[in-house]
Hints:
There is one protein chain. The chain has 8 helices and 21 strands. It has helices at 83-91, 133-142, 148-161, 177-189, 207-224, 235-241, 259-264, 269-274; strands spanning 5-10, 13-18, 44-52, 58-67, 72-76, 98-103, 106-107, 118-121, 195-199, 227-232, 244-249, 252-257, 279-289, 292-297, 302-307, 316-321, 338-349, 353-360, 363-371, 384-389, 395-397. It has a 6-stranded mixed sheet, sandwiched between helices. A 5-stranded mixed β-barrel has the order 13-14-15-21-16. The protein has a 4-stranded antiparallel sheet with strand order 4-3-6-7, with helices on one face. A hairpin with a 2-residue loop joins strand 1 (5-10) and strand 2 (13-18). Belongs to the ABC transporter superfamily. Spermidine/putrescine importer (TC 3.A.1.11.1) family.
Amino acid sequence: MEGATRLLHCAGALVLVSLNQSAGQPADPPGRTEDVADKDDAFVVFDHVQKSYDGETLVVKDLNLTIAKGEFLTMLGPSGSGKTTCLMMLAGFETATHGEITLDGRPINQVPPHKRGIGMVFQNYALFPHMTVGENLSFPLEVRGMGKDEREVKIKRALDMVQMGAFAARRPAQLSGGQQQRIALARALVFDPKLVLMDEPLGALDKQLREHMQFEIKHLHESLGITVVYVTHDQGEALTMSDRIAVFNDGRIQQLAPPADLYERPDNSFVAGFIGENNKLPGTIEELTGDKAVVRLATGELIDATAVNVKGKGQKTLVSIRPERVEFKPEMMPQGAHTLDATVVEVIYMGDILRAVLHVAGTTDFVMKMRNTLGQTRLEPGQKIRVGWHPQDARALDPM
């Protein structure tokens, strides 16, 4: 079947398998190892990439993105934001309408999926049910013309990586969901790909197992130094695993930054609301000096905030404040804190934290998070308190 490409549907996922390569043909040479200094040195580049399915509506709008060799980059966003389409274009399952994608300096728009040297992990595992674990891992090596002895060495190494060495003779149906996901990951790594793509790989797992697998994948990435592009809509997952996160909305990257920067310094109201929990107090810019803003809230109070994407006096704004930065005990208030009157609406027990919903400055969904420590002051619905935060923890953002 030389020259043929077979399309196999497994667990609803498209798996492309090529028999183009002749026996013994080596895999593509490994990518460069130097640090990425600029766009020309990046491992993956999206250059003005657009995607439309109907010729008019752009699902991906002028995407410019560089990914370093060895980086763990997550594409994060709500459903329909364009993140999965970008991953599918990189994998070769979708074609860019405009622009160019390069991998290790090589344009790949016209390169078929099976010649890109990319491993893929799907949400539904996409394992062949009629094959054993060992046969599932052997398959991508066989179609690359690899000999039996070399295949056995690579299969053993890949299974050991994911702590599944004792399961080679089992079939997927005999494994738990977490075990199947480990095998899917091992199959993506077994042929030493240049790049591994993961499309919502943990979405089908329960919460505890999903969190455990997040750390396993993170540690595997660190130990192997592989390049990973990961797609998820789970912001906690993205914060836990990533070197950088690209936050998508409406076909565009809203912000690209390391997890701490995204959380602590969001560029706009969408990012502030999508990454973690966030309080939003509506107001109007009263004064603006450099990156310092004075905001008049809807109820008349004046507060200071860091000006992010507001332009001048009179502009509407949403002031962003993280719930864990809010205090109500006078002895815990940061120096120079702004304080406002608040009424407790409800207190929710969440184990390690207590989540208090408050009525503050005209909003009834203002949240304060408190550590559940011994001797923590109990709050009751209807109780009047005063809350405060450091002005540096307030960010004046666009009103959406």
